[in-house]
Amino acid sequence: MSSSFQTTLKVQNDSQKKKVAIIGGGLSGLACAKYLVDAGHSPTVYEARDVLGGKVSAWQDADGDWIETGLHIFFGAYPNMMNLFDELDIHDRLQWKIHQMIFAMQELPGEFTTFDFIPGIPAPFNFGLAILMNQKMLTFAEKLQTAPPLLPMLIEGQSFIDAQDELSVTEFMRKYGMPERINEEVFIAMAKALDFIDPDKLSMTVVLTAMNRFLNESNGLQMAFLDGNQPDRLCEPMKQHIEARGGKVLVNSPVKKIVTKDDGTIDHLLLRSGEKIVADEYVSAMPVDIVKRMTPKQWQTMPYFRQFDELEGIPVINLHMWFDRKLKAVDHLCFSRSPLLSVYADMSVTCKEYADPDKSMLELVFAPCSPLAGGNTNWISKSDEEIIDATMGELARLFPTEIANDEKWPATCNQGPKGQAKLIKYAVVKVPRSVYAAIPGRNKYRPSQTTPIPHFTMAGDWTSQKFLGSMEGAVLGGKLAAEVVANRALGNAEKPIKEIQQHIVESAASYVAKEPIGVLGEGAIAFGGGAQLAKKNMDLLKESDPIQFADAEQYAAAS
């Protein structure tokens, strides 16, 4: 599809060139703008914050250390992302790791095991062989029991994958007679890595989508780290590409309101500064939770917009932990298989910019961290100290002979005298509304990029595309939105609107529209990103998103 923006979707004369206003400077908004300038259009990206990237944004603290919103890994099975790196001529910024998956051993603290992919063996045989060669996680009989339920995925393809969206991973396993130990050994780690959710809450479609890519591409599971911070090493090249071809990328430009005409079409965008933005085409690249707050009153009874009620962002926490010495680390991503942690990496080893020969800096994904994701505790509402203490307890299990008994962190109280490594600094980044929660039955509500509003298009990883909420999904969602705009500019027939569920159509008719709430406050959390939360921001979050402070029982009642 990328090449079509410079060929079949390219403007043929100046009358077809469109001025496009894109709300949101995350990966999806930037990708949309990138492909629109390639097609000869004039997009402007309006980013509310002072940094680009959205959920891949990062910033420097007072010490000059980079704080990242999330631990982001690039897979060989990310075709749109790989094309983007090639098109920007920045593929050398990816630090590819050995083709393997590394798991912490639950029963053997401090030990790890791997799935090793042998070079030269094509997919899907390399994946099967990697599992068969591992002797520590599953018995041979359990491995054989795993294969039959997955065969329809390979034979029937996407139709079978999509049909499993009503089932959680756990329900799928039990329906097809897969051993419970496969859940304990593999699927828990996989589910938390893919969408920060436990398997009993995650749609099986998400797992099958990922596995289908991994099983069909020989290097699909090979992982790479970016060689530095995302704003400089990824977002900046996208910005430069856009601006070099006549587009604009503006930060500190929050949109206050989408102002409509009497007939429901867009009149202009009103920025918080008071400036009015008039364009030929408008694209929303905002997260679903923000779109719901911004939807104009005249649109609210339309079934297309009412289906957004079925979607919401999943909470997740990203941790940075600096130690006073080097921990025994591998140059790779590690699946912790911890009840509190998803994946982690020693960034002082895996990332060129963060390299340190003397001290380790672990970046860890703390998940699940809410009842929505299957957790028992709403960790978003907890203090940084509580979160770090719980994490130190898990690290004591992962590094039993290295983490010190530190009175500052009670969870380390059982550590023996061999442990010497002490925590010297940490950063807790909370993302109350991250990628959309891929719980069972949600996929059918993800909207098409084409909307019922003339000259208004939807982008974002939560829109309808075959990848889950991810960097790949964000780039593809932005590219598909650009395709809708470019196709319309040429006078071609509109891309169809995805079918909307009948119960949504019926409930929309009785919905009572009201003035949009809009975005409350300023900063990353207000606009759907992640941040280190001071008391002021915690108070704002409590006001604007009170469910983040509910316990499991209260959450169940609210749901």
Give a verbal description of the structure.
The chain is α/β, with parallel strands linked by helices. Helix content is 32%, strand content 16%. The protein contains 17 helices and 20 strands. The strands form 5 sheets. A 7-stranded mixed β-sheet has the order 8-7-16-17-18-15-19. A 5-stranded parallel β-sheet has the order 10-2-1-14-20, with helices on one face. The model has no long low-confidence stretch (mean pLDDT 93).
Distance between the termini: 40 Å
Q: Approximately how much beta-strand content do the residues carry?
A: 15-25%
Instruction: Average the pLDDT over all residues and give the rounded result.
Output: 93
Derived from helix and strand composition plus strand pairing, the structural class reads alpha/beta
